[in-house]
User: Fold these one by one.
Assistant:
Number 1:
Amino acid sequence: MDFARLALFAVLGIVDLAFVLAWVNAIKRSRAAAGRPDAGDLFTGLLTDFMDALGIGSFAPTTAIFKLRGKPSDELIPGTLNVGHNAAAFTETVLFVTAIAVDPKLLTAMIASAVVGAGVGAGVVSHLPRRAIQLWMGSALLIAATFFAMSNLSLFPAGGVAMALHGWRFGIAVGTNFIYGALMSVGIGLYAPCMITLALLGLNPIGAFPIMMGACGLVQPVASFRFFQTGRFAHGTSLGLSLGGIFGVLIAVFLVRRLPLHALRWLVAIVVTYAAIAMLRSARASRAVTVAAVD
């Protein structure tokens, strides 16, 4: 294993140890709000991180399920996504970065830029009002549903055969991942836009997996530190996502050999579109309440 991957795993271990300690401290500060996960939380984590390991992503499907279940409240969703899916992201990073040999420089630079972007984005999102979060996440879900549909209609670029990028292609890849890392803080998953960008730049689609997994493996705990400070995440639901998510990843990687991904993406697109409409309607209702209160 090359030095870049060893360094990545070392940083990943340190950051995730800090993540666990910060979560414990957050629970101690708000013990009454900690709560416990229920069966629905566990199943949501298993199902969505199963899809995540297959390259579909977990943020949009999880948000859709949250809206269908009516919990947690909308302003807690971005933090819950980042905190709750971190255990699965850690597992995926270890598995995919070990198995797929993409250029170490590209891998390291793109992960680093996404982490910096997440630190900036989470600082903003952790203080946004409820309606702003609803508008951002409603828009994010519509974007995600569009990506799913485009993928099924073969409107995405096929990608190249390269496992490394150089020159201006390298610069664009690193710069755009900063933006994608920041957007994760409002619930916009990194997978689809990152994979599209790398395909357009000529990278082999397989090479995108360790980059995507590695970025999320570090972006989510870094973003979570801000949410731990503000307490804007659902403790019990996050724990349920974490426990169920690990099993979902392991099932996808080691047990699943064939799955109708085409049909699954259409199903996810429909559910996510419903959730987007529900989120935007909630934002509209919040605005109406605010206007009525002012009048």
Number 2:
Amino acid sequence: MYKPMISLAGTWNYQHQPPNFFRPRRQANVMADLAWAMKYNPNLKVQLNAGYFDLATPFYEGIYEMRQLPMPTKLQDNIEYKFYQSGHMVYAHEPALKELHDNVAAFIRGTDHVPAD
């Protein structure tokens, strides 16, 4: 059974401290880590994959969060977005799973030739 709102408050470890940020209270957030990693390695590429019919994450939330990353604007070009006719678990819808596979494979092929600094 799919349960989009399972309470993890009592079991989640909130000790992680993002680089150069205050520790979030009662909410896990790794966006600061992603921004730091992209600034540290400006060749880092990111692919966001999301289903249109996600009951756990509002549709535009991922795009909004990525566009708000505290990093130079030019690094936004390193983020690509892929969307599927599915829910939160894109891989649970077979046609979307095939698209996801093809998109991730193309992403890897398109980024593995970039040399690290």
Number 3:
Amino acid sequence: MSLLPTFTTTDVQERRPAVAVLPVGSFEQHGPYLPLITDTAIASVIARELAAAYPVLHLPPITVACSHEHKAWPGTVSISARTLYSVIDDIRVSLSHSGIDKLVIVNGHGGNYVLSNVVQEANVAKRCMSLFPQSGDWQRARERAGLKSDPWGDMHAGEAETSMLLHYEPDLVRSGYETADHDGGDRRFLLTEGMEPYTESGVIGFPSLASAEKGRLLIESVTADFAPHLALLTTGAAEEN
């Protein structure tokens, strides 16, 4: 199944979605066994599943974002936070011109901190944007999927990310994840030093614990937890979930 939306303009006209979902990923190292597009692939999978379950417009992903903490590894490409902000704001404005005035950013990369500011500022004038999944959505998903690691220890290319790709895009996963576990420790100066002092491989997490079944349950959980986010944008009140 394609990670990119393949509908036509007629499809959109017939469906008349009031909300668009925009996957935002990254192009950054994920160790020797996951591709540089890992975050983009995961965000796109989530957006694809949301579009299958809810009346939303699935947009193509933003594939390069804020990955400055990964600069030590070849292949990683970043743009500035101000550029990412501007691109998303331009997309929001363009959508509004075509009658879609609600936008959900589906974020696949934890380093895209500026997305929180984008959403907060957009909502000052009127409620029009959301950031998904939130940390609580991911925490519930990890519990429902039976993950053994915690979000802090399993920060990058670990049990969660490897599991999701094993189920939804297994051709993207190379061998080696079974023996690549690495505990990155405290990491208190990550913003100043980047990831290099905390990992040689680029991995901080426990991919040996990954499984396709966990990946399926993770995505199913966040898909179900999208309902109150959508309700808040469309009706003004979050549904109980």
Number 4:
Amino acid sequence: MRRHPSRWLPGLLLVMAAATALAAPPDATYTVKPGDLLQVSVWKEPELQGPVLVQPDGKFSFPLAGQFDANGKTVAQLQQEISSRLAHFITNPVVTVSITQVNGNKVYVLGQVQKPGAFVVNPSVDVMQAISMAGGTTPFAALGNIKILRHTAGGNQIALSFNYNDVAHGQDLAQNVTLQAGDVVVVP
């Protein structure tokens, strides 16, 4: 029995849209973090292709181009830097950099939650989402005293207050901040 194309075409379009969404590149504003795995490829140069792990200090090395500091840089910026350095050895290098694993963008949720631990966030989550990723709170949680511990650019640490009940009731939503890599949500 042969099916008419008009019957399966909507389903095919839905599958194609889902596949496109899954293959979409990360947010262009995402900056590479220590622990991220990059795929670097130079067109027509098989020796200059492969995975690159961003080290804990935010740096990585690539053949012929040397060492790079990825801290605070986007994929596009790294691609440009690598191309620029390789231009000394290769005429008009075509470099592609992509993130294959976003392991460096982690937040930590601990205390009175069902599943405390480290969570990779792609690309970002807020406090309520992080608590949900940790399985929600336990019955013993002090929902009005949750703290977000964050390291500032100057190396200091700050504590942001979060009242779960207020946010759950649609009040004071500004405290439901987007978490940054390395933030710790403490649910007492």
